[in-house]
Every structure is written in C-alpha cells, then in structure tokens.
Amino acid sequence: MKRYIINIMGPQAVGKSTVIEELKDYLPTYSSLSIDWFRHMYSDGTPNGEMKAWYELYVAASCEEYIILESSGTSNNLKILIESLECEVVHVLLDAGMLTVQLRYDEREKMGYKAPPMYFRRNILFDWPLVFPNSIIINTEKPPYQAAAEIVESLPSEFI
User: Fold this and answer.
1) What are phi and psi of 127, to 5 degrees?
2) How many domains does the chain have?
3) The pLDDT value given to residue 127
4) What's an example of a GO molecular-function annotation for this chain (predicted)?
5) Structural domain boundaries enclosing 14
6) Residue 58 belongs to a domain with what CATH number?
7) Angle 16-26/144-154 helices, nearest 10 degrees?
8) Averaged pLDDT in 10-residue chunks for the chain of 160 residues
9) For the stretch 121-143, what's the b/e string if a residue is b when 16 or more beta carbons lie within 10 angstroms of its beta carbon?
C-alpha cells in the first residue's frame, strides 16, 4: 500500500495541533497521528517508554494510507519511522515568532496542559537541527485555517 504522509513539525506551542485540526477539514481522508499522544499512552518517561511510544506510532502508521504526522521534527526516531514506511512525504515546518510561541506556551500552562512523559528535557525553542531540513515553512501567526489552506495549496496533487 502506498502511503502519503504530511509531516507537520515545529516547536512546542507553535500551533501544530490547532493547524492539524483545520487541515483535517480540508483532508477528511487523512488520519492524524501525534508522537505526544503515543507518549501519553505508552511512555513512562524512560528511554524504553520512549521507544515503546515510537513503536506503537509505527504500528498505527503502517495501517493507514493517508497520514498527518505531528512531532517536533528533531528526533532521529522520526527519520527512521518515515524511512521504514513505503511513502511519499511532504515535510511542513510550522514557525512563529519567539514571543508568540512563548505567549502560547504560557497560556497552555495556565489551562493545565499536561506534557507527555519524557526522559529528556524539552525546550520550547529549537536548539538542535531538524531531521528533515528541506521543509515547506508556514508561519502560524495567522489564523489556523489560513495556515492549513497554505499547506493544502502546497501539496502535490497525489496528496489530495
């Protein structure tokens, strides 16, 4: 089975989940998979728990044809996952100014956001390179539906 993956990447609080919700309105046949969801479900904050989360994400992705994948884009596990699936992939980096990201992060914390269990410290800003540097860059300081529309407009026809 040929798979089509829209790989949505970006730092914490850049708006990945919000843009993906809008993107699903444009692309209803796509399943949305997030490593953070799998971390909440399967990880205990240890390296073994992290690998279990990535393994379960791989199992779920291998059952789907059209996938919107959400992660920071900095894990080598992401690269291994995508390379192990027979797929066409478009990499999308969501970006916003540091002040916007910090304000969103602070607002999330006030609302009781529970971060997934991690065995390493997370940083809301990128301090290491993306594993897929050749990405479409979309600014998320605009309304989420506009960011989603930009993503759809940039997709090759076989993704739609």
Assistant:
1) -130, 15
2) 1
3) 54
4) kinase activity
5) 3-159
6) 3.40.50.300
7) 60
8) 94 92 98 97 95 98 98 90 94 90 84 79 60 86 97 96
9) eeebebeeebbbeebeebebeee
Instruction: Label residue 148 exposed, middle or buried (CB < 10 Å: 0-12, 13-18, 19+).
Output: buried
Burial 10-47 (b: 16+ CB within 10 A, else e): bbbbbbbebbbebbeeebeebebbbbbbbbeebbeeee
Rounded-to-integer distance, Cα 157 and Cα 7, Å: 16
User: What pLDDT, on a 0 to 100 scale, did the predictor assign at position 75?
Assistant: 87
- H helices of 10-135, where? 16-26, 35-42, 47-62, 76-84, 98-110
pTM of the model: 0.89
